[in-house]
Amino acid sequence: MKFLDEAKVYIRSGDGGAGAVSFRREKFVEFGGPDGGDGGRGGDVWVEAVNGLNTLIDFRFQQHFKAQTGIHGMGRNRTGANGGEVTLKVPVGTQIFEEDNETLITDLTKEGQRFRLAKGGNGGFGNSHFKTATNQAPNWANPGLEGEEKTVWLRLKLIADAGLVGLPNAGKSTFLASVTRARPKIANYPFTTLHPNLGVATIDGREFVLADIPGLIEGAHEGVGIGDRFLGHVERTRVLLHLVSSMEENVGKSYKTVKTELEAYGGGLIDKPVIVALSQIDILDETELKKKAKELEKASGQKPFLISAITGKGMTDVLRALRDVIVEASGTGETALPDRSTPVKEDSDEDDDE
Ligand SMILES: Nc1nc2c(ncn2[C@@H]2O[C@H](COP(=O)(O)OP(=O)(O)OP(=O)(O)O)[C@@H](O)[C@H]2O)c(=O)[nH]1
Ligand SMILES: [Mg+2]
């Protein structure tokens, strides 16, 4: 699947149909008179969040969306039909911005949420509308109003409960693969992951959505590496899991590098609860493990979880910790799950707590 999280599209709502100028003229009918109908309304342009999409890739192939013009009014007081509308179908989590790519128009966070981006022009009045006592035969009608046209940006910010952050090779994708059914690419070179991946983790019969994003390196906020452009996808999570690899010489420094990038990004990331874990601990012996765990604790100010996605050590504990923060942060214990089409496990009876 190709991933695209930003797209620029041109939209135009339909013009209104023109009103008609028409007079009733019939043999043997004494009283005729104006009977031009009104034009139909132009079609609207809507945007709607739908399930089953997690990329804006469709908008790379189609960037113009035009609704139909209203049908003109006709004689015998017939009103024209309204123009057909068009609906842009986008993934849940898509935000729509004005052409400046800064002014937010709407944020579609729930499945089925709709928003009208451009209103179709009203149809013009036909001449029967203008008859008065003093002018019983108006020979004019209104043209329809023009539709609106504009360029908007679509920006997707995935909706997940927890986000994985860390340097390249920290084992983020391996973590995701070991606790969910997601199968991201894993390899021992930096920037294996080029776009975000989502998966559903289950712990003690509860599910939550976990997002894996490309690794961050020093200067990511200035565009170094893949940069921080995917951090938007963890902006809406309730908790971050910061993985620091046991393979790092200096785990304290590695931790701080990523923390600095999170700070530089802004977007409220630094205010999110963060759980810190030392990953890939299976490669360390007892003494090294103690030493690195201490270093990381000193740098982060919290006791890191010690985990190995390969052996499974510590994984349950860290999942529980994530779940606890998610449940607490949401109050209701509701997760991002209802909006995702993912395989449902057998314990689905307690999932409908929307
Ligand atoms: N021994 C051991 N190796 C691990 C563990 N987790 C991941 N690895 C290895 O570490 C390397 C990097 O793992 P990835 O999961 O691709 O790392 P990443 O953080 O997703 O890396 P990027 O996508 O490049 O940012 C791979 O070769 C993995 O097999 C672990 O728990 N133990
Ligand atoms: Mg990866």
TrEMBL record:
Belongs to the TRAFAC class OBG-HflX-like GTPase superfamily. OBG GTPase family. Monomer. InterPro entries: G_OBG (IPR031167), GTP-bd (IPR006073), GTP-bd_Obg/CgtA (IPR014100), GTP1-OBG_CS (IPR006074), GTP1_OBG_dom (IPR006169), GTP1_OBG_dom_sf (IPR036726), OBG_GTPase (IPR045086), P-loop_NTPase (IPR027417). GTP binds at residues 166-173, 191-195, 212-215, 279-282, 308-310. GO terms for molecular function: hydrolase activity. It is found in: Cytoplasm. Residues 1-159 form the Obg domain. Residues 160-327 form the OBG-type G domain. Its cofactor is Mg(2+). Mg(2+) binds at S173, T193. SUPFAM superfamilies: Obg GTP-binding protein N-terminal domain (SSF82051), P-loop containing nucleoside triphosphate hydrolases (SSF52540). It comes from the Bacteria. Gene3D superfamilies: GTP1/OBG domain, P-loop containing nucleotide triphosphate hydrolases. Residues 332-354 are annotated as: Disordered. Keywords: Cytoplasm, GTP-binding, Hydrolase, Magnesium, Metal-binding, Nucleotide-binding. Its EC number is 3.6.5.-. Its main location: cytoplasm. This is GTPase Obg. The gene is obg. An essential GTPase which binds GTP, GDP and possibly (p)ppGpp with moderate affinity, with high nucleotide exchange rates and a fairly low GTP hydrolysis rate. Plays a role in control of the cell cycle, stress response, ribosome biogenesis and in those bacteria that undergo differentiation, in morphogenesis control.
